Each structure stands twice: as structure tokens, then as C-alpha cells.
């Protein structure tokens, strides 16, 4: 079974600065998907960014980018120009590729609470 | 854009009662997933359906059952409720999991409190 680990329970960043959230995972599969979800105080789960394991290019979405290191099984999220609205719990998640027949469910890490200081 | 709809948003039940949670996926999404998030925890997968058939099963108690209907909405039925069932229950939907765009989009959740 796959496991996802987020080693930083809490992080803080000054508004307008950059912060990186860490995520590592354990799998024997070669093809899979990785995601970052944001959960603000409203508790809504919002998809931030997605990465396919077969793609070497790191995904980017506006101020959000990832550093995907497949060999190291690492998938960190970088938030640039942090804004007050970025304050939330961030979850890293793993999903197996369909042809692995291991299921299509998401396996989440324990989350990192990000605080943004004005 | 239309999102996943869950009802009710809040539910309070007594121990040993039953509860039914409903989920309406994004239009054209044929796959539905249910997750349970306890206080201070990450979401845990319960069960999923693709084209009205159960596709995957996670840590869902035997007291819970679920189904997906012909209009693709899904219901999670919970019986003999226990205090430990108090949690936020998310429904997520996606296109065919084998398709290239298979992201799961989450609903706002149903907060279940068991007294």
C-alpha cells in the first residue's frame, strides 16, 4: 500500500514571501498521480495542482509550483508571493494509475497547516 | 461552473440512529467517491462507484452502505451510529478514472455529529 508523509505539521510565511511545503511518498508503482489540495477554514477541499509521474516537467499553476523528484519520491509545493488567502491546511495526495488496478482512490498525507503573517 | 452538491450540510443524530447522506456529482461526471475526515485528521477513503457499480472499497464499516443511482447521484447510508462516526463526510466526483482528466473534485462536505 502507498503511504504519504508530510513532515511539517505547521509552517508560517510572511505575506508576499515564498514558502515550500514538503511531501514524501512510498510506492512500488512506476506510474501514478500526485496532487496538492488546500483546505481553508471552510473545510472545502480545493484542488491546487496535479502532477503525472511520467512527466518530468514540474507542474505550475500561477503562484503554485511543484518540485517533483521521482527517484527521491518527493513532491514539494512552492507558493510564491504568499497571500493572506493562502492560509489553510494543505494535503498532499497520491493516486495510482488506472492500469495498476490498485484503485482510483486518493491517499492523503497528514496535512500541513500554513499560516500567513501580514 | 457547477460543483459537487452534498446534502445535508449538517446533521445531528443520536447513537444507534441511522443517517443518509446524499451527493450530486458535477454534470457529466460518472464516478463518485466518499471520504471520511475525523477531527484533526486527513480524509480517509470509504467507497467509490463508477457507472453505478461499486469500483473500490476502503475502510468503510459494515454498518455503512452506499449506492449510485441512474442519474449518477450517490447516497451513503449509515446505521447504528456510534460516537466515533462524528466526522466530515466528503463526496468527490470525477470523469472516467481511466481518462486523462481524472481529477477528483470535492463537495463542501456533510458534518455529522453523533450525540
Attribute tags:
heterodimer; A: 118 residues; mainly beta; four-stranded antiparallel sheet; 12 strands; globular; B: 115 residues; 11 strands; 0% helix
The portion of residues forming beta strands of chain B comes to over 45%
| Cα radius of gyration of chain A in angstroms | 14 Å
Order of helices and strands of chain B: EEEEEEEEEEE
Question: What's the number of extended β-strand segments of chain B?
Answer: 11
Please outline the major beta sheet of chain B: 7 strands, mixed
Assembly classification: heterodimer
Helix content of chain A: under 10%
Biggest interface: A-B, 23 and 27 residues
Structural class of chain A: mainly beta
Distance between the termini of chain A: 41 Å
Low-confidence stretches of chain B: none
Structural class of chain B: mainly beta
Instruction: Label the overall shape of chain A.
Output: globular
- DSSP helix count of chain A? 0
Helix content bin of chain B: under 10%
How big is the Rg of chain B? Answer: 13 Å
Distance between the termini of chain B: 36 Å
Q: Provide the β-strand percentage band of chain A.
A: over 45%
Largest sheet of chain A: 6 strands, mixed
Description:
The complex is a heterodimer of chains A (118) and B (115). With 118 residues, chain A is mainly β. Chain A contains no helices and 12 strands. The N and C termini of chain A lie far apart (41 Å). By secondary structure, chain B is mainly β. Chain B has no helices and 11 strands. In chain B, strands 2, 4, 5, 6, 9, 10 and 11 form a 7-stranded mixed β-sheet that branches. The model of chain B has no long low-confidence stretch (mean pLDDT 94). Classes of the chains: A mainly beta (118), B mainly beta (115). The interface between A and B is medium-sized, with 23 and 27 residues.
Amino acid at each position: 500500500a502507498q503511504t504519504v508523509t508530510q513532515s511539517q505539521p505547521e509552517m508560517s510565511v510572511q505575506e508576499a514571501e515564498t514558502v515550500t511545503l514538503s511531501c514524501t511518498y512510498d510506492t512500488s508503482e512506476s506510474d501514478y498521480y500526485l496532487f496538492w489540495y488546500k483546505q481553508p477554514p471552510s473545510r472545502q477541499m480545493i484542488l491546487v495542482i496535479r502532477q503525472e509521474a511520467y512527466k518530468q516537467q514540474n507542474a505550475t499553476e500561477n503562484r503554485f509550483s511543484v518540485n517533483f523528484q521521482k527517484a527521491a519520491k518527493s513532491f514539494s509545493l512552492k507558493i510564491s508571493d504568499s497571500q493572506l488567502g493562502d492560509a489553510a491546511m494543505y494535503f498532499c495526495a497520491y493516486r495510482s494509475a488506472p492500469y495498476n488496478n490498485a484503485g482510483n482512490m486518493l491517499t492523503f498525507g497528514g496535512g500541513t497547516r500554513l499560516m500567513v503573517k501580514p | 461552473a457547477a460543483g459537487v452538491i452534498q446534502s445535508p450540510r449538517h446533521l445531528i443524530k443520536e447513537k444507534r440512529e441511522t443517517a443518509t447522506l446524499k451527493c450530486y456529482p458535477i454534470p457529466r461526471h460518472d464516478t463518485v467517491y466518499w471520504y471520511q475526515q475525523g477531527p484533526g485528521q486527513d480524509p480517509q477513503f470509504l467507497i467509490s462507484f463508477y457507472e453505478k457499480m461499486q469500483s473500490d472499497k476502503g475502510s468503510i464499516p459494515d454498518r455503512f452502505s452506499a449506492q449510485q443511482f441512474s442519474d449518477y447521484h450517490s447516497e451513503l447510508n449509515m446505521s447504528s451510529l456510534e460516537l466515533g462516526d462524528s466526522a466530515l463526510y466528503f463526496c468527490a466526483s470525477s470523469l472516467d478514472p481511466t481518462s486523462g482528466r481524472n481529477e477528483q473534485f470535492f463537495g463542501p462536505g456533510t458534518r455529522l455529529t453523533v450525540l
